[in-house]
UniProtKB/TrEMBL annotation, chain A:
Coiled coil: none annotated. This is Histidine kinase. CDD domains: REC_TPR. It comes from the Bacteria. InterPro entries: CheY-like_superfamily (IPR011006), Sig_transdc_resp-reg_receiver (IPR001789), ST_Response_Regulator (IPR052048), TPR-like_helical_dom_sf (IPR011990), TPR_rpt (IPR019734). It comes from Methylomonas lenta. GO terms for biological process: phosphorelay signal transduction system.
UniProtKB/TrEMBL annotation, chain B:
It holds the Pfam family HATPase_c. This is Histidine kinase. Transmembrane segments: none annotated. Keywords: Kinase, Transferase. Gene3D superfamilies: Histidine kinase-like ATPase, C-terminal domain. Signal peptide: none annotated. It comes from Methylomonas lenta. It comes from the Bacteria.
């Protein structure tokens, strides 16, 4: 056996000492030299944050505390591991993937117990080879350099490595979708499907339909897929996205319910089911899912105080204030001195007091909430701001309510799903259409600003156009349309005139912002590709 | 006291029990391997028997679990593309120490470039099960091969033993209704592998299993076809 492990740093995460020793012995027999061990999730994460491991072998079952899947989710979420790290989850069961129900975070491989050194070797070799081959592509993707990534991918495909061909084709199609080159994406999937019926290729076709706005076609693609592959969980997630885009919340709930039945361990899906069922007024489903989210969250990076308060809110809606207060008490135990948690609790307590007719107490809690909100400022999550506004309306503090609504609507004017939440909240408290005027004027103002900016841009007045958008951004800081337009102008400016560092930095800052506020990656992809081409030419130009 | 609900409790207990048994089995197999290296030759037979039994427990446990899952509609494959040689090597690796101890010579005939779609774990376990039986009945050698056959990938395991008994040769492997043939370890293993094979599908094609005594080295021949 050739030594594939020489010079590689390896982390073993396993709570059972005999098993840990057995794995260590196997690795040494494979000529590993650097092995670090951890016996629980928290020390594993600490170790990973200190060392860049090439390989992590992590048992799923780690006793009390975080499990292996939660360790993986956390290190991915906190970006503690690099793309070339091979992460293997060791599980007792074969169909671990389904049972553990990873939504975004799949390990590179599941390894089933018991296994011996040879079996471990085959797995490690396979994954190390794949990572090695794909790393040129991954590196470029991580840098946001998509055109380079595509070139690398094409280059590898022409080399004719049979074993990697399917991986590369899948990657090629995904990259095409990212840069909005839907024709190429479609073609790759069609070609693959000619050879064999593969669920990921059919999913990809549906994703392209979805991105192109053909919701009807996307839905039928995903539905057909799930009929034949009912265990293909990603299919449910995408189908629910389609229904969400159609604002068909009943369908969203039905689809998520099926997925949760198959894979109850996935916290993100439980949260989504909970809030959807809650909006639909399905108390039992929502309660069950919120409870699941709270308990799955205990050791998860996706733990959130909003799961507690949403559950408490649900109880208060069904006039079960005792259960509501108990849930809030539980939350305070988990979140000590956490302003967001305290703010959530105060807002809800204010409502509870208000409902029970205790106006004085209600007022006090609301005041506390408002002052906490002032401290947090724009860091207060939008759903929570909406709750505070609601309480203000209910307790006749319209001025405060309007101020919050004004900010919310202006910031989120192109988030149609959230605007629907705003509308739902208001009709809920008998103020149907209350903010409609504000929503429509804000939309018109946005259109006007954009038109004006585009006009200036067409007249070649780049500076003026950018200044106009800059000003608009102070009112609507997270507006996606404005940021996209600014990026388009800067890109044009960079192409038309001399490139200077200041403009480059500005573009980079805008790209960063765009990613932060989750602008569709394919909308950004085309611009990012142009930008990386510009950068490459800029760097390769001889300096005078 | 909370009500004891068997339906919800059983899967939980099953899962953690299996986890426990697997941990123990892993340690046990590791210890056996170490013992085999240290012990003098007069004890090798016992150690070999020990290894065989531990492997068998593992396979039986896995078969039990799969059958439980199929029965509860919880069975699912993670089908992806793998090199056929990797699948063969995995099956061999599972049985490696046993094959070495029993001095069975294994010949592999498979091109490096041959690819197949399968659930890696289940198929390599299935082949491991057959290999485990073959090494028990063979005289001295076993051939594992893989190649393309009529739109399927065909894995074969051939031995130079006595061959399959008539009742197995006449059995309809896809149909356990006639349970007579399922009796005994060999039959049970075959039934299990046939079940796993039948879950592998591509459009109208379905995986299946064939057995005969046409081994090139004069014993039993097992063939697994994957679409």
């Amino acid at each position: 056996m050739k030594s594939i492990l020489a010079g590689k740093s390896i982390l073993i995460v396993e709570d059972y000492p005999a098993m840990r020793k057995a794995i260590r012995d196997m690795l040494y027999s494979l000529e590993a030299d650097t092995i670090v061990e951890a016996d629980n999730g928290v020390s594993a994460i600490n170790a990973i944050s200190k060392t860049n491991f090439d390989i992590v072998l992590c048992d799923y079952n780690l006793g009390a505390g975080k499990n292996g899947q939660q360790v993986l989710e956390e290190v991915r979420f906190r970006k503690l591991i690099e793309y070339n790290c091979v992460f293997i989850i060791i599980a007792a069961e074969q169909s671990a993937g389904l049972v553990l129900g990873a939504m975004d975070s799949k390990p590179d491989e599941y390894l089933t117990k018991p296994f011996n050194a040879q079996q471990l070797f085959v797995r490690l070799e396979r994954n190390l080879l794949r990572k090695d081959l794909m790393q040129d592509i991954e590196k470029e993707i991580e840098r946001g350099n998509l055109s380079q990534a595509i070139q690398q991918c094409e280059k590898l495909l022409t080399k004719g490595n049979k074993r990697m061909r399917t991986h590369l084709l899948k990657m090629r199609a995904e990259l095409a979708i990212l840069v909005g080159d839907f024709d190429t994406g479609r073609q790759v999937y069609y070609d693959v499907l000619q050879e064999r019926d593969l669920p990921w290729a059919r999913l990809g076709l549906g994703i392209i339909d979805f991105q192109q706005g053909d919701l009807h076609q996307a839905a039928s693609e995903f539905e057909d897929l799930l009929r034949e592959y009912p265990m293909f969980l990603e299919g449910y997630d995408w189908l629910s996205k389609v229904h969400e885009a159609e604002d068909n919340l009943q369908e969203v709930e039905d689809v998520l319910n099926q997925a949760v039945d198959l894979s109850p361990q996935c916290i993100l899906r439980q949260k989504k089911l909970a809030t959807t069922a809650d909006k639909n007024g399905h108390v039992e489903v929502a309660e069950k899912a919120y409870k699941a989210a709270v308990s799955l969250g205990k050791y998860s990076v996706y733990k959130s105080c909003s799961d507690f308060t949403n559950l408490a809110k649900l109880y208060s809606k069904t006039s079960n204030s005792e259960a509501a207060l108990k849930t809030l008490a539980d939350m305070r135990q988990e979140y000590v001195n956490n302003p967001e948690a305290e703010l959530r609790a105060s807002t809800l307590e204010s409502d509870l007091h208000n409902v029970s007719g205790n106006e004085e107490m209600a007022k006090l809690s609301l005041q506390k909430a408002l002052s906490l909100h002032k401290q947090l400022g724009s860091k207060t999550p939008k759903d929570l701001q909406l709750d505070i506004a609601r309480s203000c309306y209910l307790q006749n503090q319209s001025a405060e309510a309007e101020a919050i609504m004004d900010g919310l609507i202006k910031t989120h004017i192109d988030d149609e799903a959230f605007l629907n939440d705003v509308r739902r909240m208001q009709s809920d408290i008998g103020m149907e259409n209350h903010s409609e005027v504000l929503i429509q004027t804000t939309k018109r103002a946005l259109v006007a600003t954009n038109n004006k900016g585009v006009q200036l841009y067409k007249q070649g007045k780049f500076k003026e156009a950018l200044a106009l958008f800059d000003k608009a951004m102070t009112v609507m800081p997270d507006n996606k349309t404005i940021i996209i337009n600014m990026l388009k102008i800067i890109m044009h400016d960079l192409k038309a005139t001399a490139i200077d560092e200041e403009k480059l930095l500005r573009a980079q800052a805008l790209f960063k912002k765009a990613r932060q506020i989750n602008i569709d990656r394919h909308k950004l992809g085309v611009l990012q590709m142009e930008f990386s081409n510009l950068l490459r030419n800029h760097v390769s130009e001889p300096k005078v | 006291m909370a009500e004891f609900n068997n339906d919800t409790l059983f899967p939980v207990i099953l899962a953690s029990t299996v986890h426990d048994i697997k941990n123990s089995l892993g340690t046990l197999l590791g210890l056996i391997q170490q013992l085999a290296l240290k012990q003098s030759s007069d004890q090798l037979d016992e150690i070999r028997q020990l290894g065989f039994e531990a492997n068998r427990i593992n396979h039986s446990l896995m078969q039990l679990l799969v059958m439980y899952k199929i029965g509860h509609q919880k069975f699912d494959l993670q089908v992806e593309e793998y090199a056929a040689i990797d699948v063969i090597n995995e099956a061999r690796a599972q049985q490696d120490s046993l094959l070495q101890m029993s001095n069975v010579h294994v010949r592999v005939e498979c091109s490096e470039d041959l690819l197949c779609y399968c659930d890696y774990q289940y198929i390599s376990n299935a082949l491991g099960t057959i290999l485990n039986n073959a090494q028990r009945y063979t005289q001295q050698s076993v051939i594992i091969s893989a190649n393309k056959s009529d739109g399927y990938i065909k894995f074969c395991i051939e031995d130079d033993g006595q061959g399959y008994p008539v009742n197995l040769l006449n059995a309809d492997l896809g149909n356990p209704v006639d349970l007579n043939w399922v009796n005994g370890n060999t039959g049970l293993g075959l039934y299990f592998v046939a079940a796993i094979a039948s879950f592998h599908k591509d459009r109208e094609k379905t995986g299946f299993v064939k057995i005969d005594n046409q081994s090139r080295i004069g014993g039993a021949r097992f063939c697994l076809y994957l679409p």
